Amino acid sequence: MRAKKTLVSWSSGKDSAWTLHVLQQDPEIDVVGLFCTINTKADRVAMHAVRTNLLNRQAKSLGLPIELIGLPNPCTNKDYEEIMAVFVDKSKARGIEQFAFGDLFLEDVRTYREKHLLGTGIKPIFPLFGKQTPGLAREMIAGGLEAVITCVDPNQAPENLIGRQYNEELFAELPEKVDPCGENGEFHTFVSNGPMFEFPLEIKVGEIVQRDGFLFADILPALDKQSRTSPDT
Length: 233
What we know:
The protein is of the alpha/beta class. The chain has six helices and ten strands. The protein has a single domain, classed as Rossmann fold, CATH 3.40.50.620. Strands 1, 2, 3, 4, 5 and 6 form a six-stranded mixed beta sheet that branches.
């Protein structure tokens, strides 16, 4: 059977990274690239607040092209859907058959994606959907995934999570009400290493700010372990 050409919806975080890893084990899937929506005014991923230069560094280590889809700020739902419709048409025209998403258990999000891809010729797939998140979190950590918390919703999770490594120590400290994968929006992450990476990204945590009710950590590139040169050169 011919492998289906697939793009992964990339957020820069752990769930999209693990989605990619799972798909790379499937001979019926041919992952040919990534796509990510960004706030063009801030030049960052919207909720993760990750700089686009770090997205490009991730893509380089993954050995995959990434398409950055610019969204205006503010962005209405109508704006978003029109911009994504153009991207879907363009993807279909170049032979893309599937979009893969890292959603875990939110049925309304999955239904929204399925609705807007219905009839486009591109099939949405959800490789991690339905997995128990405590087990999935431990699977990712044991599998060598390295990530840092970039955003915290202080109404749902402790503020002291911001800027910390996503590891067993953090996992053990999470209150029972906080989903261990942050699927309810409690927190978001940036992945710097894992089995899907060709080389690790060396990063540091910069300024931590509070904006629009959320805490954000500015993740900055440091020296790359592979080349020992600045990642922006």
